[in-house]
Amino acid sequence: MEKKVRVRFAPSPTGGLHLGGVRTALFNYLFAKQHKGTFILRVEDTDQTRFVAGAEEYIAACLEWCGMKPDESPDLGGPFAPYRQSERKASYRQYAEKLVASGHAYYAFDTPEELDAKRKAAPNFLYGQATRMEMRNSLTLSRAEVEQLLEQNTPHVVRIKIPENETVSFFDQIRGHVSFETNLVDDKVLLKADGMPTYHLAVVADDRAMEITHVFRGEEWLPSAPIHILLWRYLGWEDEMPEWVHLPLILKPDGNGKLSKRDGDRLGFPVYAQNWTDPKTGDLTKGFRELGFMPEAFVNLLAMLGWNDGTDQEIFSLEELVEKFSLDRISKAGAKFDYEKAKWYNHEWIKRAPASELAVSVKQVLAAADVNVTDDENFHTVIELVKDRCNLISDFVTQSSYFFVAPKEYDVASVKPKWNEQKTAFFEAYASTQMQGNAQELEAEFKALAAEHQLKPGELMLPFRVMLVGGKFGPGVFDIAILLGKTEVQRRIKHAIEAFI
Prior knowledge:
This protein is mainly alpha-helical. It has helices at residues 19-34, 55-66, 89-101, 112-121, 143-151, 199-209, 225-234, 261-267, 295-303, 318-324, 339-352, 355-368, 376-386, 395-400, 421-430, 439-452, 457-469, 477-484, 486-500; strands at 6-9, 38-41, 105-108, 157-160, 167-172, 176-181, 189-191, 214-218, 243-247, 250-251, 276-277, 284-285, 335-336. The protein is 42% helix and 10% strand. A three-stranded antiparallel β-sheet has the order 3-4-7. Strand 5 (167-172) and strand 6 (176-181) form a beta hairpin. It is elongated.
């Protein structure tokens, strides 16, 4: 019987969640849901020196915003708990000791000072086949010396003993057959002096313990693959080893290297899913959510960074992605991040969303700009009227606030050069008309009055728009007038005339 699919997203709680991390979570999630499997959140916090308070909660919040709720996690628990590696600390030493006993690992007693001296003497120093016999470890010390050092609780690490002149090969679901020469791999630390495992040991032990069937991770982990495969083999678990899926990198907009937070800061776009405030420095890094992205659009654009379904379709709901996702459509090549394209996705999702779905987030951005909405019925009409003009949720401030707050400033420069007494007379007369009916009827009344004043309607539309909204933007000016109502339109006309004269 085929094993049930079990995948894990295993971030380290060291700061904000990069969009590359969210994409890794997404591909895990899509694969699991498509195969009626299990999506697990496991927190890899073995490196306590890099642990950042609040980061784990932040990661969980990002997944929730994206609609990717784990089936098992530190908060939810599950049959393979605990899901924090720091809480599994006691389980790892047995595997390190097993590897030492079988000759596949060894104790290394080198002090940090000794290692620093080696690195200074040889800038490209690697602890491995070429150097291990020059160091202070259980391969160079006598058995009695080693036992004495262990009895004295001398600080030490456990390193894997990488074999010489071997080729480690495996099949990757994206890249096909991949091979590594062991002579190019160093003896990585498996267990640190504080008893905590490194990523290499912990990830293998936990993937086996949690019965993970497929490992989705970024291609930057490819160089670590031979170490992990050897560990699966040396621990006698090779038959249980998961399938490998190394995802392509998300690249800078110019395609030159992996996209980083620094690139986002430099080029003016977010790379984190949500706002992240560094608890040590207080520095705020803005996220896609707070800059006005809908979660559906964010998930959609991430899916298309390195994957497509083979058609021209670009807009996918999460449910559609679950249905259509396939490993054979993931690209080997890195995907360039294009912020303008990202905004296009968001624009498309805003256009498709009903006003009722947008109302809460739009109301929040308006409130942040000191624009309070009280009339919900009209508010939904306003959203439907202007949403096609918004790339970001934050754009609703510019595109809709004038419906609720009269403009404080006017684009006078676009009106004043052609303003004259005849136009003043027209708008004073228009302000006293009935202004009844729908937008078409209002427009007909406006044009009829223009004809009476011997003016072309085209000369009057722009001033009228500026009077109502403050600038040269917005939907149909008579649609705006209908929603504002006669009294407010009259008030705005009179106030604006004073600014134009």
